Structures are given as structure tokens and as C-alpha cells.
Amino acid sequence: MVNEIHAQPNRAAGLFGLALAFLASCTSLALASAPIPRAKPALPLEASAGLEPTTIPLPRAKPARPPAGDVGNAPPAPQRSWPKSAGAWPKAEVLAARTACERMLKGLDIIWRPDQPIGEPGGCGTPAPIAIAEVAQIRIDPPATVNCPFAAALHDWLSQSVQPLARKQMGAGVIGIRNASSYACRRRNNASRGKLSEHARANALDIAAFDFSRKAQITVAGGASGLLQKIGLSGKGNFMKAVRKSACTYFNTVLGPGTDRYHGDHFHVDLMKLRPGRFKMCR
Ligand SMILES: [Zn+2]
Q: Tell me, what's the pLDDT at 202?
């Protein structure tokens, strides 16, 4: 099941490095927490503490596409292995979520790794989290822990809106986004009481910057760095305004600078459930 990994041989080394970085971080759920803004877990991750340690096979880079007519000799796609433990979740629920996940992500250009269930029903967590390292050829730095519907929405937004807007307005494609926070067991705005954040369901991502090359980025907080012009990017129009607006097509909540004092330096996007009478919140 490596349809998602479109890697050429010379790219495979890079992907493998990425995969090693994955391995280094996979012993800890802290994978999901990133420096900005500091997500201080208000609630303990008790359910995940007792999980058996697992060795998770890394996603393998797909070999170069065989010549036409040679498909019969192609090696069978390796199966992704999900961790054995269902944690504090009912096993049936975990299996159903994993099956849905595989179906949802099939054919999407995402480099991802299955993760063990986080948390428990009714609290923080999600039954079938995944770690995503690259989505639509855009590196997620550091890799984010999300649920599968979120990963699919992120893929569609990045490939259908962000990348075309980048090429049109900046004259170059985005190569990476800065993950400021993904999964975090906490309440909204890190408050001590109130509703759980969508981050607590692995259903949200905070984006602090868009990278156009190793040295050129646009931060959500501070606009474009001077290096953008040095490498010939045009910066026509307001790229950040455009991507923020476009996000509302794919996500149910989009927050950022100007929303409130909690979102001055990043975009928050999530897939909050829209119950009857509840509408998208993009502001
Ligand atoms: Zn957020």
C-alpha cells in the first residue's frame, strides 16, 4: 500500500532520511507537540502510558515506476502494519477506523505512518491516528499527528488551493509548512476548563509558516522574509490572505492573526464536527 509514496530513486534517500526522523520520534507522542505555540497538556495522557512499545515499520519509498507492460513483474505492495494494541479503545472501533483510514487515503500523495491509538472514547485522543511527513509533495515540519479525515482534507487544500496560489502569486511552489502544533490533549486556547480543543482529537493543525526553499519562507506572524526576493520570488498579491480564505472550503474552522490573542502567529485549521445549527467558523 505505497501508492501514496511517489518517490523517484534519487528522492528515496531523502524520504528514507525523513523516515528515520520518524523512527527517532515514534517512541513518543510528543511527536505531535511543537514549539509554537507551546501546547501545555492540561489533561494527562493516561490511556497512552500503558501501551506496549511497538516497532512500527516505516513506509517504504516506492521504486521507480516500471515501464509500461511490465506491471506484471512489479513487486507486491507491502502492507502497512498498524500497531497491535487498541489501547483504551474498543477493538472493533479501532479496526473500523483503520479500515476507513486506508480507504480514505488510498491514492492520495501522502507519506504517512500508522500510529497507535491515543487516549480513550469521550476524552482526548483518536482510535486511528497517523503521522504525516509529506502531503502533496509538501513537507510537514515536524511531522504531524492527525486523524485520517484531517489528513485527506489537508491534502486537498494543499494540492488544490495552496500550491496553485503559491505558483500564481509567488512564482514558486511551497516545499514545506511549519507545524506549530497538531495532536495535543488540551482544552481550547489552553484554558483550564471548557471544551476540548480539536487538537485533542488529532483533528487540527497550527501552521506557523510556508517554506518556498530552505531559506525563504513566509511566516503567518511576520510576513515574507527578505530572502524571498533574493531567490526571485515575486510576491504578487497577498498570498497569506488568499490561502487563509481558501482554507475555509476544506476545513470547518480557520483562525489566524486578528481572530483573537491566541492566534497572532499561526493559522489554526480543524475539521470540527458540524452538527445541525453549527456552521463553519472562518474568521
Ligand atoms: Zn490550533
A: 98
Rounded to the nearest angstrom, the distance between the alpha carbon of 140 and the centre of ligand 1 is 15
Give percent of the chain above pLDDT 90: 53
What is the CA(28)–ligand 1 centre distance, in A?
20
Q: Return the pLDDT at 38.
A: 41
Is 53 contained in some domain? Answer: no
Cα 65 to middle of ligand 1, angstroms = 38
Exposure string for 259-269, b = 16+ CB within 10 A, e = fewer = beeebebbbbb
* Pairwise CA distance, residues 278 & 275, whole Å: 5
User: 226 versus 98: which is more confidently predicted?
Assistant: 98
pLDDT of the residue at 9: 41
- Tell me the mean pLDDT in the region 80-106: 95
**276 CB-near residues (< 8 Å, 6+ apart):** none
**Cβ 205 vs Cβ 182: under 8 Å:** yes
CA of 10 to the centre of ligand 1 (A): 35
What is the 16 CA–ligand 1 centroid distance (Å)? 29
Question: What is the distance in A from the centroid of ligand 1 to the CA of 237?
Answer: 26
Tell me if 34 is assigned to some domain.
Answer: no
User: Is residue 7 domain-resident?
Assistant: no
